[in-house]
Backbone:
C-alpha cells in the first residue's frame, strides 16, 4: 500500500529524473569573390519539463558583414518558466529577456512578463499554447530609456510533421501601456529535418521577425533574419 510519503517521494524522484534536453545550432557562410561576405549565427537552448513545471532557456548570436562592413551584430538571451496545473489546460508563466543590438536605436533591452497561459491544442504530434500577461521593458542607449509597462499577448506551438521533420513557431504582440498606440511585435518559425539519427544532427531553417512602431530617427521599424545551420540535440 502506498502512503502519502511514498507518493511524495515518487514525485520528487520523477522530477529529479526528468532530463534537461539540450540543442545547439551553428551556421556560417563565407564568400570571397566579386564581393567578400561573411556571416555566422549560433544558438544554445535547454529545456526541461515535468508534470508540474516547464523551463526553457536560450542564447543566440548573429553576426554578418559585407566588404568588411558589419551589417548585423546581435545577442539575445531569454528564458521562460511555466507552472503547469496537472489535469487543467491552464498554467502560469514568467519570462525574462535581454537583447544587445548594435544596429537598433537602443544598445541593450531588458523585458519581462508574468501571466496566465492556456493549452489550446494538446495532441501527440501538435500543441498550441496561448498566453497573456503584463510586464515591463527597459532600454539603454535610446531616446526613450524609462522603465515602461507593457502587456503581452501571443501564442507558441510545435508540430511533428513526420518522424524526421518538425516545425516550431510563435508570435507575440507587446502593446506599450505607457504610450497608447505604440507597440512591438515578434514572430518566428523554425523547420528542422533529421539528417543523421546516430548523431542527432538536423538541418535547421528559420526566420525571425520583429517590428517596433516607435524607433529613434534613422532606425528601421522592421528587422528580419533568415537562419540556416546544423542543429545537434542531446
Residues:
Amino acid at each position: 500500500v502506498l502512503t502519502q510519503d511514498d507518493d511524495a517521494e515518487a514525485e520528487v524522484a520523477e522530477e529529479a529524473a526528468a532530463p534537461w534536453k539540450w540543442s545547439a545550432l551553428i551556421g556560417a557562410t563565407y564568400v570571397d569573390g566579386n564581393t567578400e561576405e561573411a556571416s555566422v549565427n549560433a544558438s544554445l537552448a535547454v529545456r526541461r519539463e515535468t508534470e508540474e513545471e516547464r523551463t526553457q532557456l536560450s542564447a543566440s548570436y548573429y553576426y554578418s558583414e559585407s566588404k568588411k562592413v558589419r551589417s548585423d551584430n546581435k545577442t539575445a538571451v531569454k528564458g521562460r518558466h511555466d507552472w503547469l496545473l496537472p489535469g487543467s489546460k491552464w498554467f502560469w508563466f514568467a519570462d525574462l529577456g535581454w537583447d544587445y543590438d548594435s544596429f537598433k536605436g537602443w544598445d541593450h533591452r531588458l523585458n519581462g512578463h508574468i501571466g496566465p497561459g492556456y493549452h489550446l491544442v494538446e495532441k501527440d504530434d501538435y500543441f498550441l499554447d496561448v498566453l497573456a500577461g503584463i510586464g515591463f521593458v527597459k532600454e539603454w542607449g535610446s531616446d526613450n530609456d524609462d522603465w515602461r509597462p507593457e502587456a503581452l499577448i501571443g501564442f507558441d506551438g510545435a508540430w511533428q510533421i513526420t518522424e524526421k521533420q518538425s516545425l516550431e513557431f510563435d508570435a507575440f504582440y507587446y502593446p506599450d501601456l505607457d504610450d497608447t498606440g505604440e507597440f512591438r511585435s515578434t514572430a518566428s518559425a523554425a523547420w528542422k529535418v533529421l539528417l543523421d539519427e546516430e548523431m542527432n544532427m538536423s538541418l535547421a531553417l528559420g526566420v525571425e521577425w520583429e517590428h517596433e512602431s516607435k524607433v529613434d530617427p534613422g532606425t528601421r521599424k522592421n528587422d528580419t533574419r533568415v537562419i540556416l545551420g546544423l542543429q545537434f540535440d542531446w
Residues 150 and 177 are 5 Å apart (CA to CA).
